[in-house]
Amino acid sequence: MRSVSGEATLFNPDPAAYLPHRDPFLFLDRITSLDSGVAATALLQATADERPMPPILLIEAMAQLGGIAAGQREGEGGVLAAFDRAELPAAVSPGERVTVAVRIVKGFGTLFLVEGTAEVNGAVIARASLTLAVGVLQ
Fold it and tell me: What separation in angstroms does the CA of 57 have from each of 3, 12, 26?
């Protein structure tokens, strides 16, 4: 991530620093890039137990990262309002490392249109368009 001046900008790689979610509902393990208001990427390690990860959880991981990318601040909340044009795999195999990426397409006050993808070994396994409400929610 780069700032307007071209210098590297520091950010906290721990998703729990931005989200109220905690285990078992925090699906992101580490944020790898963050350009607030623009885009973000993160890593997700599918659990290594014997069961595949339900692919719908990739949508939630994209929503969590989208809330972070939208610039969610302390004291604010976020809600996945809708998702559209979702393409999901049959399952995510145990132990797979997934790279989740989101891009903010548009912002309308507290509403954000976000495009997200999930990749394993460089191949896109899931994609979706999300609508998020982020801010002080009543």
Answer: 31, 23, 10
Predicted confidence pLDDT, tens digits, the chain (138 residues): 443 434 556 789 999 988 888 888 899 999 999 999 999 999 999 887 778 889 999 999 999 999 999 986 666 778 899 999 999 999 899 999 999 999 999 999 889 999 999 999 999 999 999 999 988 766
Domains of the chain with CATH codes: 15-135 (3.10.129.10)
- Asked if 104 contacts 34 with a C-beta cutoff of 8 angstroms, the reply is no
SS (H, E, C) the chain: CECCCCCECCCCCCHHHCCCCCCCCCCCCEEEEEECCCEEEEEEECCCCCCCECCHHHHHHHHHHHHHHCCCCCCCEEEEEEEEEEECCCCECCCCEEEEEEEEEEEECCEEEEEEEEEECCEEEEEEEEEEEEECCC
Q: Which of 130, 97, 132, 103 is nearest to 41 (CA)?
A: 103
